[in-house]
């Protein structure tokens, strides 16, 4: 281990020296779930970055930017760390980006200080990630950011007793804590808190437990992917929906590609999230048009494409600020407080936390022109990561 | 009481899904002596074919099941002729494992390439979707259907193997293939037919169980351990064993998930360890 670290820093040092001479190509290593059950989201990283490059070219000043993709596959910290090392040592990347899963981001974080490389997180949503290195900037979302509005909505919609069911890993535990704290502060009661293993596919027993708890509302988080669909179907088929138990979630549970499979039974499910493909703005229309023009499918667009698109913008700004030199402190400083209009709405990088501030929308599943969408019905403006910022 | 009944029902339906898929593997392992690690892959192919037939060709659910079972058997025929035929009964375990895990990887890669990495749903007809009120609780209608399918499969297999001419020939071929051969039984055909039966059962299970074990390319490996566990707990080749093991493990898993979801599959494997300790040959296993 120690040897590989030495090797790494030596190789990086060499990379630094030679980097000056051939400053014309700047490599960005993107680690994402390119295969496996979560491949759709890795594909979206690429779609988002491609859309940015198609619109803004592959040059920043005199520097050509090249994106290199590596497959993170699953929550697999050891593999992700090895991939990051390979990108740094062998491919000599100047920036790292992507990362779908929290445990993977945590594994990469220690390499950043050592190798003086900024990491732009394009998904992994546990609050603590940005605290693991001063060189981490995040353009996705956190569980606290999306969950606090959900708890407020639950309260105003008249929920009194809530059962929380979350996936048993970092973001799930964040979601549970965020909902519980906010909902109880508003005067509500949490009657049940269930942590479900990540590989759960049969949610029948969970639904039974929720029913027995006497809750009038379920709040849930599962990482977007195969299990979310099973959860929603179990909720409907076990008669909880018909029995008047409401379902609140973050948008991960009702991503647009899953909606056709959930079907009409999903109409009316409420979620809070930072991006809906149906978001009505000229920026979003242009963004989606660009993806479709590049051959992406409209039905496959998810939140990770937007995070990647904005992540690419942040990286371009970093390259511009450092003029292509490896200077992570300067690069990160340059994007602190950066403000722009993203396809998801107005956003900014919080200078204190290096996490993105953005609108969080309350959405309901609705059928428009024969197609199920997440329709935005309320906006919570400029939400910070509530775990790290208090306003 | 109501809760116990509810959990029991959930457990039985989950157990039935395990049974329908695992029984094919049990037949392969018990009768053909092949540890077929590609069994999950065949179940997955069944699921993909059903999904394709329904979503892209507009077939009904019943037709989709038929398409899935027959289609999977057709796909498996070249594999049987070229590969499996060589490893029935005689070859050593390592050859079997390497061959069948290789087939599994190829099928995973192809499924990923052709159908993409996302989950493929098998839409249920209205009669089978939604909740069904059975007095003391609402249960997904589909689960009742799965339980019925499991019972029918178990009965039909028992009749086929214990009561028909084919069953007699099969058992004769299994017990002493040289003698069966010399008595004029076409053992090659018997084996091929049994292989097709095992694959077809896998495909059937893949389709009807898709609500609980969703179809995606890694299905082939993801649930393979569970299927193998069911077979070894039940005793390879025993229908009653596979049924008992599936139901027991289904109940253990479901009860565990209800009482202590954060323990994950702890109770499932605890049950496996206890049973394997008490019955080293499986619940209904025979000594070979």
Describe the structure in brief.
The complex is a heterodimer of chains A (about 400) and B (about 290). Chain A has about 400 residues and is an alpha/beta fold.
- Give the overall silhouette of chain A: globular
The helix/strand class of chain A is alpha/beta
User: How does the overall form of chain B come out from the CA principal axes?
Assistant: globular
Main β-sheet of chain A: number of strands, strand sense, barrel status?
9 strands, mixed
Helix content class of chain A: 40-55%
Description:
The complex is a heterodimer of chains A (391) and B (288). Chain A is an alpha/beta fold and 391 residues long. Chain A contains twelve helices and 15 strands. Chain A folds into two domains: 2-141 and 280-354, Response regulator (Rossmann fold); 144-273 and 360-383, Response regulator (Rossmann fold). Chain A is 41% helix and 24% strand. In chain A, strands 7, 8, 9, 10, 11, 12, 13, 14 and 15 form a nine-stranded mixed β-sheet that branches. Chain A is globular. In chain A, 57% of the residues are buried. Chain B is mainly alpha-helical. Helix content of chain B is 70%, strand content 2%. The longest helix of chain B is centred in the N-terminal third of the chain and has 30 residues, at 2-31. The termini of chain B are far apart. In chain B, 52% of the residues are buried. Chain A binds chain B through residues 35-40, 168, 194-197, 199-202, 204-206, 208-209, 212, 225-226, 229-230, 233-234, 236-239, 242-243, 257-258, 261, 263, 265, and chain B through 3, 6-7, 10, 13-14, 112, 116-119, 121, 123, 129-131, 133, 137-143, 211-214, 216-218, 222, 253-255, 257-258, 261-262, 264-265.
């Amino acid at each position: 281990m120690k040897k590989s670290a030495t090797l790494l820093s030596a190789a990086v040092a060499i990379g630094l020296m030679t980097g000056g001479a051939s400053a014309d190509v700047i490599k960005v290593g993107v680690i994402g779930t390119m295969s496996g059950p979560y491949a759709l989201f890795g594909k979206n990283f690429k779609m988002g970055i491609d859309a940015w490059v198609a619109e803004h070219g592959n040059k920043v000043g005199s520097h050509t930017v090249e994106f290199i993709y590596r497959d993170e596959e699953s929550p697999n910290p050891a593999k992700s760390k090895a991939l990051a090392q390979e990108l740094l040592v062998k491919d000599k990347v100047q920036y790292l980006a992507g990362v779908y899963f929290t445990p993977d981001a945590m594994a990469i974080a220690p390499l950043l200080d050592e190798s003086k490389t900024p990491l732009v997180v394009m998904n992994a949503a546990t609050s603590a990630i940005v605290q693991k290195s001063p060189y981490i900037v995040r353009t996705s979302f956190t569980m606290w950011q999306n969950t606090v509005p959900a708890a407020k909505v639950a309260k105003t919609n008249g929920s009194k007793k809530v059962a929380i069911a979350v996936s048993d890993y970092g973001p799930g535990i964040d979601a549970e804590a965020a909902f519980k704290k906010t909902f109880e502060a508003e005067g509500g009661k949490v009657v049940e808190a269930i942590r479900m293993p990540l590989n759960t596919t049969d949610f029948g027993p969970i639904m039974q437990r929720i029913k027995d708890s006497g809750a009038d509302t379920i709040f849930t988080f599962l990482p977007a992917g195969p299990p979310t669909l099973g959860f929603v179907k179990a909720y409907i088929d076990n008669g909880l929906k018909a029995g008047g138990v409401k379902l609140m979630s973050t948008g991960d549970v009702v991503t647009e590609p899953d909606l056709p499979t959930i079907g009409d039974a999903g109409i009316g499910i409420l979620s809070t999230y930072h991006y809906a493909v149906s978001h009505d703005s000229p920026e979003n229309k242009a963004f989606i048009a660009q993806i479709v023009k590049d051959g992406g499918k409209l039905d496959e667009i998810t939140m990770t494409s937007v995070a990647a698109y904005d992540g690419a913008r942040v990286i371009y700004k970093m390259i511009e600020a450092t003029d292509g030199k490896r200077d992570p402190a300067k690069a990160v400083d340059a994007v602190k407080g950066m403000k722009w209009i993203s396809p998801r709405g107005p956003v900014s990088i919080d200078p204190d936390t290096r996490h993105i501030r953005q609108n969080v929308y309350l959405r309901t599943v609705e059928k428009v022109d024969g197609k199920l969408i997440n329709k935005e019905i309320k906006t919570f403006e400029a939400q910070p990561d509530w775990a790290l910022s208090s306003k | 009481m109501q809760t116990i009944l509810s959990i029991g029902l959930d457990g039985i339906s989950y157990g039935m899904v395990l049974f329908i898929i695992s029984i094919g593997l049990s037949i392969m392992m018990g009768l053909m002596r092949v540890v077929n690690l590609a069994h999950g892959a065949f179940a997955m192919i069944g699921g993909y074919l059903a999904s394709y037939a329904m979503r892209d060709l507009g077939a009904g659910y019943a037709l989709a099941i038929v398409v899935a079972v027959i289609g999977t058997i057709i796909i498996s025929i070249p594999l049987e002729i070229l590969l499996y035929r060589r490893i029935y009964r005689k070859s050593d375990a390592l050859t079997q494992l390497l061959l069948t895990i290789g087939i599994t990887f190829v099928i995973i890669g192809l499924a990923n390439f052709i159908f993409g990495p996302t989950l493929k749903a098998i839409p249920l007809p209205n009669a089978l979707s939604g909740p069904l009120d059975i007095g003391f609780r609402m249960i997904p209608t589909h689960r009742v259907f799965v339980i019925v399918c499991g019972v029918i499969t178990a009965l039909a297999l028992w009749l086929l193997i214990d009561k028909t001419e084919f069953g007699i020939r099969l058992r004769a071929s299994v017990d002493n293939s040289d003698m069966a051969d010399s008595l004029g039984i076409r053992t090659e055909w018997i084996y091929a037919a049994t292989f097709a039966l095992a694959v077809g059962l896998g495909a059937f299970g893949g389709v009807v169980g898709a609500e609980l074990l969703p179809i995606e390319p890694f299905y082939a490996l993801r649930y393979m351990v569970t299927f193998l566990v069911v077979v070894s707990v039940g005793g390879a080749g025993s229908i009653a064993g596979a049924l008992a093991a599936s139901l027991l493990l289904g109940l253990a898993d479901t009860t565990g998930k209800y009482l202590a979801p954060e323990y994950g599959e702890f109770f499932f494997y605890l049950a496996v360890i206890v049973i394997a300790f008490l019955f080293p040959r499986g619940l209904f296993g025979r000594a070979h």
